[in-house]
Amino acid sequence: MQPDKEFLIKLAHTKMPFGKYKDRYLIDLPEYYVVWYHNKGFPKGPLGQMLETVYELKLNG
């Protein structure tokens, strides 16, 4: 399955909109923080989809 290029480009340019890591690029979030979201549950909508993708990227490289 080929990743959606537009989604990945948007992901690369999206910053965390709130919280401790506000204004940090999603891909630069610490792994433990993304794992915490995975355990807690990702938010609904585009941000949640992006955080889930970041989780998979950090998990699988």
What characteristics describe this protein?
61 residues, mainly alpha, 3 helices, globular
Biggest beta-sheet profile: none
Regarding quaternary structure, how should these chains be classified? Answer: single chain
Beta-strand percentage?
A: under 5%
Secondary-structure-derived class: mainly alpha
Give the number of helices: 3
Distance between the termini: 16 Å
Q: What low-confidence regions span 5 or more consecutive residues with pLDDT below 50? A: none
| Cα shape | globular
Mean pLDDT: 93
What is the helix fraction of residues, given as a range?
40-55%
Radius of gyration: 11 Å
Work out the number of β strands. 0
Number of domains: 1
Order of helices and strands: HHH
Organism: Xanthomarina gelatinilytica
InterPro entries: QSregVF_b
Protein name: Cytoplasmic protein
Question: What does this molecule look like?
Answer:
This is Cytoplasmic protein. It comes from Xanthomarina gelatinilytica. It contains three helices and no strands. Helix 2 packs across helix 3. It has one domain. It is mainly α and 61 residues long. Helices cover 54% and strands 0% of the residues. The radius of gyration is 11 Å and the shape is globular. The model has no long low-confidence stretch (mean pLDDT 93).
SSE blueprint and pairings:
Elements (H helix, E strand, L loop, with lengths): L4 H8 L18 H10 L5 H15 L1
Helix pairs in contact: 2-3
